[in-house]
Each structure stands twice: as C-alpha cells, then as structure tokens.
Amino acid sequence: MNTKRKTIGRTFSQSPLSKALENEEQSRTFVLQSGARAEFKHVHILPGDVADTTFVVQENNGRDQTALTKDSLVDITRTIKFQQFFAAIGRRVDGKIEILDGSRRRAAAILCRTGLNVLVTDAEVSTEDARQLAKDIQTAKEHNLREVGLRLRSMKENGMSQKEIAEDQGLSQAKVTRALQAAAVPQELLSPFPVQSELSHPDYKLLLILSERLLEKQISTEVLLQEIDAELTVLRANKQLTPEDSKNSVLALLRRKATALIEEPAKDKVKSVPLWSFADKDRFARKKSKGRAFSYEFNRLPKELQDELDLAIQNLLSQHLSDK
C-alpha cells in the first residue's frame, strides 16, 4: 500500500524550482504602483537549484551585489542554515525567479548550500512596478549603530572584553567602541529625534558628551527637554524637512540649549556657619550668607540673651552707620 503523503498546494514537476511547501499553501497579494494586483505564492527552492533558478537585477533590487561577500553575509549565514525568518520576494521571468527583495538571503543560501523560501508571482509585473515593489517591501534594514551597541553592551555586562566581543561578532574593535558609545547615550536624549536611525557615530558622540557634561553640572535631561520643547514642536511641524535636515536641526537645538544650561553661572549657595555648639540639637546660633547677603539665626535661647543681642546689634549699627 502506498502511504506517501499527498503534497498540498502547487508543485513544479517540470521545473528545477523544486516543490511548494508541503503544508498549507501560503500567499500574499500586493497592490503595485500601477494599481494592478499581483498574487505571490510561497515556494521553497531546493539547495542545489537556488543559484541556477534565481537571479537578481541590481537596478531593480537596489542592493549592490558585488558587496555580498562571505564576510558581509555572516549575520545571515549564521542562521539561514537552520531557519529563514522572512521569505524573499520574486517574480517569474522566462522560467526563472527574479529576486526583488531578499538578495542577501539568496546569496547566503548559495554560500551555505541551503534552500530558499520565496513568495513568487506568475503575474505580469512591469519593470517599473517591480522596481517600486522592491523599494516598498524592503525587509532587510540594517541595524543602526545604537542597536548594535545595545546588543554588544549586554555581552560586555556578561564579562566579555571589547576585544573578545570584536572577535566573537566579526567586528573591528573600533566598531565595537563606537557602538558601545552610541548605546551609552541616555534614551531620553534620543527621544527628540523622529528617525533615530539617521544618527551617525559623530552624532552619538556629541550627545554622549552633552549628557556627561549635564551630569557633571547636576542638570537633569528633563530640564534640557523642557528648554527645547517649544522650538522642538515648531521643528516637528515643518514637513518640508528631510529626515537628515530634521536630525541636524534637533542636534543643533540640543547643543545650543545644553551649552547655555552648562555655561550658566552657578547660583550662589547658602553657607551656614555655627556660632556656638550646643548639646541640644534643637538649639543653635548660626550665621547664614549667600552672596552679599547674610543673616543670623538663633533658636531656643533665653529671652534675656535675645534682648542683649538686640541691644548689641543696635549699638553696632549706630556706631558704624550713623552720620558723624
């Protein structure tokens, strides 16, 4: 008796593209730039077929294919041998599949000699629609410097040195240092930026310096944010600014306001000097001064002593201030 399980969904018996996934067929429908709709169905391409049955047009995909070296793909090759988190997106052209999104996953699958999951459409998709679709559904967004730093910081907190982290992650020690600096910037100081991924290493370095100087002056980040609130609201309302222009404007605002707070003359502190020591902590005789102002304070002294102090003060004032 033949007990072979029947394949559910489509198969490609006359094509080297392999079979569809042997489970419930998955599909997605995308609306193209032209307004047309295209259905994409889930296909699994066998390891030996990925290189020959798929291809990439750099102008459509947008990824520099010459930059997809073994070293540049290490983050994907580390996991794709076991699982592929997101399917690539492709269209069928002359019997093959053009990868519109997922060329790094394709290159990693070829390097690792593993299969590739792709959502593929048989619909006629123009070059213009293909190019825009690839741009719209781009899923492989690189982690920004701070995101990398937050991950590396947890490794450092677990006892690894920066050298060990660099070796483990395949990064230069300089990159590890920059990433950790970015992670050290207080989250509150990043909240004014609408697109934090626009921040570069010099930007993070400036913010870290500002946060350290504010801390030295015992000025809270909350005070700084209150200072910029009104101008920040105006900046955010300006829809003409590009993400980079917006970032630069917020940076300039933070630097200007933080510098003003840091360089603001320190307010004179009240100095208190005891005039007599008492065994009873509730009794005191002290002089307080702040700048050019000063005062004397007494507590729980006898009425007779108060009267004598009043008289002594009156006599001294008269002696030194009365017209002669």
Describe this structure in words.
The chain has four domains: 27-136, Alpha-Beta Complex (Conserved hypothetical protein from pyrococcus furiosus pfu- 392566-001, ParB domain); 145-184; 187-266, no CATH class; 271-321, no CATH class. The chain is an alpha+beta fold. Mean pLDDT is 83; it is low at 1-25. Strands 1-2-6-4-5-3 form a six-stranded mixed sheet. The chain has a three-stranded antiparallel sheet with strand order 7-8-9, with no helix packed on it. It has 13 helices and nine strands.
Question: Which terms would index this structure?
Answer:
single chain, alpha+beta, Conserved hypothetical protein from pyrococcus furiosus pfu- 392566-001, ParB domain, 6-stranded mixed beta sheet, 13 helices, 45% helix, elongated, disordered N terminus
- SS-based structural class? alpha+beta
CATH class of the largest domain: Alpha Beta
Query: Strand count, sense and closure of the main sheet?
Result: 6 strands, mixed
Q: Helix share of residues?
A: 40-55%
As residue ranges, the low-confidence spans are: 1-25
Termini Cα gap? 131 Å
The strand line-up of the biggest sheet is 1-2-6-4-5-3
- Global geometry: elongated
**What do the pLDDT scores average to?**
83
Identify the quaternary structure here.
single chain
